[in-house]
Amino acid sequence: MANNNSIKNLIGPRVKEARLKQNPKITQVDLLARLEVRGIELEKTAISKIESRRRPVTDIELVAISDSLGVSILWLLGKEN
Question: Which among 8, 19, 44, 69 is placed 20 to 30 Å from 76, CA to CA?
Answer without folding.
Answer: 44
